[in-house]
Amino acid sequence: MKNVVIILISLLFMNFNNNNVCLAKNKETIIIGLDADFPPMGFYNEKNEIVGFDIDLAKAVGKEMGFKIEAQPINWDAKEMELKTGKIDAIWNGLTYSEERNANMLLTKPYMKTKPVVVTKNDANINKIEDLEGKTVCLQKGALAQASLISSEVCKNAKDIFYLETMLDCLNEVKLGKVEAAVVDEVIARYYLNINSKENCFKILEKNIPAEDYVIAVARGNEKLKNTIEEGLNKIVKSGEAARISEKWFGKNLVCFNEEDQSAKKITAESTKENSDVFNGIFSGLLVTLKLFFACVLFSIPLGLLICLIRRRNIKILNAIIDLYTLVIRGTPLLLQIFFIFYGLPLLLPAMKISNRFLAGSVAFIINYTAYFSEVFRGGINSIPIGQWEAIKVLRIPKFKAIEKIIVPQSLKACLPSICNEVITLVKDTALIFTIGIVDLLSATKNAVNISANVSIYGVTAAIYLFMCCILNIIFKLLEKRFNYKS
Amino acid sequence: MNIIEVKNLSKQFLNKNIFRDFNFSAKKGEITAIVGPSGQGKSTFLRILVGLEKADNGTIQINGKNLLKDGVYNNDRKEISDIFKDISMVFQEHNLFFNLTVIDNLKIVKEDMRKINNLLEDFGLAGKENLFPAELSGGQKQRLSIIRSLLLDPKIILFDEPTSSLDSENRVKIANILNKLKEDSYTVVVVTHDERLLNLVDPIIYRIK
C-alpha cells in the first residue's frame, strides 16, 4: 500500500520534470529570477522596490534589445528548478560560474569577476583564514562559496557550518555574533564596507582565492534568449552604458564582458551526486524533523496543561498574563516567533541568548504550541460537568490525585480530536525551522532536488510526511478507544 | 445534643430570598427530613452545609464548632477542615466519576480495601467492581454514591432527593439503608418530597412552605 502511494505521488510530480525550454521566445517581458537580498546586485530598497546593479544592467540590455524586465525574487536554493520549470526566464543575479551549473543550465559569457571572501567582526581575533579553526562559519545555501570552500581547509577546520537563506542573513549573523565568520561574495562585502563606512563593523580577510566569473543563466536549449542577452550586453558595453551603471554601484567599472570567453569550457557530465548521498541527506533531515517534533510534543502538552490549570485558579494578574501570552502567540506568525527567539531576544536581553540554533528553534516551537495546547485543554476542562468538581470537593479528594485520575482523563477524552489536529499540524510546521539554518526534512529535500534535479524526491518526502501523519492517526484512534467509556 | 444547629439562616440569589431566618437542628442517631415543594432552597441548604455555597446571614454550628456565626464565616482552616470531615453528602445526580470503574470510584476516596469490600457486600454491589457508572442501574448508582460517602467515616450524611429517580422496590432499599444508618447512630438529613419514603423511615420533619 505504502509503495503504491509513493509511486502515485511520484508520477504526479514527474509530469513537471520535462524541460520547458520554449519560454520567452516570443515574449516581450523577460522574467529575471533573483535572490532579492543580495545587495548591490539585487535587493529591496526602502521603498520596497527591487533595485541593484544587475537590475540596472538587465534593464539597459532590455532597452537595447526591445524587451521589458520583470524582477522575480526566488528562493536561491531552488534557482535551477525555477528555470527548469519555466517559472523564470533567466537567472541574473551575481550567479558565479561552475561546471555543475554549466551542466544544468545554459550560461552566457561572463560579464564580471568576483571571489568569495571571509567576513568577520572588526574586533574579532581572526586575522587570517587559518584562524577560523574551531570557529563557527555560515554560508548561503546553494551559493558557490559552499562548493569552492567547503572542500578547502577553511571549512574543514571550522567547528560548525550553517547554511542560511541569503548572504544578507549571513552578514547579520556575524553582526549579531551568532557566528564568527561568514563566507560571502566579495561584491556584497565591499558594498557594505563602502556604504556603511561609519558604522561598519566588518572586516574582510584577504586570501588568494581564484576569482570567479559572474554569468547569466537561461534554461538549457533556450539559445535564442542567451544570444539576445549577449548581444545586448555587447552593445551596452560598447556604448559605455555598462561602465556608467557599474560606477554608480561600485565606484568603478567592474564589467569585463568579452575579456575572456568561457563558453568553450567543457560541459561536464550531468549530476555527479550518487543517489545514496541524496537519501542520506534526506534521512538526516528526517532525524532533525523527528527530534524537533518530539521535543515540542513532550514539552508543550504538559506545559499547556499546566498553564490551563494555573488559569483555573482565577488569580487576576496571572490570568491577564496568560491571556496576553495566548493572544500574542496565536496572533502572530510562528515564523516571526522563531526569528524573534533566535535573533531578536538576544538583542533585547543579552542574558537570554540561545546560541544553539536547534535549541532556539525548539524553544520557539514549544512556546507557540503551548499556547495552542493550553486553549485546547481549557476547552476540555470546561466540558467537565460541574457535579464532578463538587463531588471532588465534598469527598475531599486531594488536588493532585483529582487532576491525575479525574480531571485530566475526562478532559482528554473531550479534547483528543483537537490535540490530534494540533499534533498533525506540528508535523508539517516543523519545516519552518529551516529559516534559522537548520536542515530539516523539507529543506534537505529541496537541496536534494536541486542537486540531483530529480523532482520525484518530492514524492518520497510527501510520502514520509504522510506516513508520519498516518502513524499519529493510528495512535490517536487507539487513545480514543482507551477513553471510550460511556458518559 | 443537636449535632447540627442552624439559626436565622438567610440566602439570597439574584436579589430574591431563597430562604430567610431558617431555623433547623438535627440530632445524632435521628433521621431529619426537610420537605416542601421544589424551588424552596432545600437543596441549597444542604449545599451550604457542605460548603459548596455560602449563606448571606445567620449561624451554623456543626458538632459544637461554628461554621458561620451571625453572618461571618469561620476562617480558621484547621477548624473548617474538622467541620467538613464530619459531614458528607449524597448528590441527587450521584456525581459518580464516570471515567472510573466502581472500584476506582471508591479507591480514589479512601484506599481501604477491607472496608470497600464489606460495603460493596452490604449494599449488594459485590461483583460489579469493574463496571463503569454508566453500566449501573439507577438504584445501583445511588447505592455506590452512598458507599462513597460512608468511606470517609462522617458523622453526618446529607441526602439530596435520594429517591427522585427510583422505583418502589429501590425506594424500600434506600429506606432500609437510612434506617440502618440511624441504628448505627449516624446523623441523617434527607431533603425530599417523596411522602412514601417519609412513611418508611419515620423522621423528624421540617416543612418549608
Could you walk me through the main structural features you see in this protein, from its secondary elements to its overall organization?
Chain A is an alpha/beta fold and about 475 residues long. Chain A folds into 3 domains: about 1-115 and about 210-250, Periplasmic binding protein-like II (D-Maltodextrin-Binding Protein, domain 2), CATH 3.40.190.10; about 115-205, Periplasmic binding protein-like II (D-Maltodextrin-Binding Protein, domain 2, 3-Layer(aba) Sandwich), CATH 3.40.190; about 275-480, MetI-like fold. Chain A is built from 18 helices and 14 strands. In chain A, the strands form 3 sheets. In chain A, strands 1, 5, 6, 7, 8 and 14 form a 6-stranded mixed β-sheet that branches. In chain A, a hairpin with a 3-residue loop joins β2 and β3. Chain A starts with a helix and ends in a 5-residue tail after the last helix. With about 210 residues, chain B is an alpha/beta fold. Chain B has a domain at about 1-85 and about 190-210: Rossmann fold (3-Layer(aba) Sandwich). Chain B has 7 helices and 10 strands. Chain B has helices at about 40-50, 75-85, 100-105, 115-120, 140-150, 170-185, 195-200, and strands at about 1-15, 15-25, 30-35, 55-60, 65-70, 70-75, 85-90, 155-160, 185-190, 205. The interface of A and B includes residues 391, 395, 397 and 405 of A.
The Cα radius of gyration of chain B reads 17 Å
> Counting H and I runs of at least 4 residues, what is the number of helices of chain B?
7
Q: Tell me the overall shape of chain B.
A: globular
Oligomer: heterodimer
Indicate the CATH architecture of the domain at 1-85 and 192-209 in chain B. 3-Layer(aba) Sandwich
Strand content of chain B: 25-35%
Overall pLDDT score of chain A: 82
Main beta sheet of chain B, described? Answer: 5 strands, antiparallel
Spatial gap, N to C terminus of chain A = 37 Å
Number of domains of chain A: 3
**Total beta strand runs of chain A:** 14
CATH class designation of the largest domain in chain A: Mainly Alpha
Which parts of chain A are unreliable, with pLDDT below 50 for 5 consecutive residues or more? 11-26, 259-273
Please provide the count of β strands of chain B.
10
CATH architect. name of the largest domain in chain A:
Orthogonal Bundle
